[in-house]
Amino acid sequence: MKRKPAIYLIAVLLCSFAAVVTQPEQLVQKLEDYLSYYTPEKVYLHTDKPYYAAGDTIWFAAYLTHGVSHMATAPSKIVYVELINEEKEVLARRDIGINQGTGNGEFALAGTLQGGQYLLRGYTSFMRNFDQRYFFHKEIRIEGLSYDDETGQPTQVSASGQQAGSLSKLVSVQFFPEGGDLVSGLWSTEGSQSHQP
């Protein structure tokens, strides 16, 4: 009794395999038709920095490829790029023309923009026919700015809205030689300054 379902399954599989083998041209044609009509696309956005401050400009490059071959042969010619805040509101949108798989654009951030975690989203019109999980998503940290009433200097504001202090106090830039050799005849900041190298 237990052998009958297994025999039935094997018979169905053999019949299906025989049908495919006798008509391989039709199978290949159906696969080609499917790929030409349901051509998946992939979008990637490359930004110039991982984080920004209010008043900065987000520069980005958009790449559009065929989802299977990863070649620049996707049929769409426009990539839509959106900047979305934490409340899921679209703050800005750019229509980026694609030429040979690439395009570029920017978002000029307002100086009064509140600090927080923002989302950069990219997609094509064709991709909207499918689940939004296939859209490109990239989280971007943006720090807000405010201005000191006394000095007029910009100060950094955290995502919670609290002032973090003057930007000039937060940033420290120092230059050091790449190697370990000292320049002959110049004073060294290493160790004591009472002698020359």
Describe the fold and architecture:
The structure is a single chain. This protein is 19% helix and 36% strand. It is an alpha+beta fold and 197 residues long. The strands form two sheets. Strands 2, 4, 5, 7, 8, 9 and 10 form a seven-stranded mixed β-sheet that branches. It starts with a helix and ends in a 27-residue tail after the last helix. The relative contact order is 0.13. Residues 191-197 have low confidence and may be disordered.
Could you write a compact summary of the structure shown?
This protein is of the alpha+beta class. The chain has 3 helices and 10 strands; from the N terminus they run ααββββββββββα.
Properties at a glance:
3 helices, 7-stranded mixed β-sheet, 10 strands, 3-stranded antiparallel β-sheet, disordered C terminus, 197 residues, alpha+beta
Indicate the overall shape.
Answer: elongated
Oligomer: single chain
Uncertain segments = 191-197
List how many beta strands DSSP finds.
10
State the end-to-end CA separation.
96 Å
Q: Major sheet: size, sense and barrel closure?
A: 7 strands, mixed
Range of helix content: 10-25%
Mean pLDDT: 78
Structural class: alpha+beta
- Strand % is 35-45%
Write the element-wise H/E pattern from the N-terminal end onward: HHEEEEEEEEEEH
Number of helices: 3
- Rg (C-alpha, Å): 29 Å
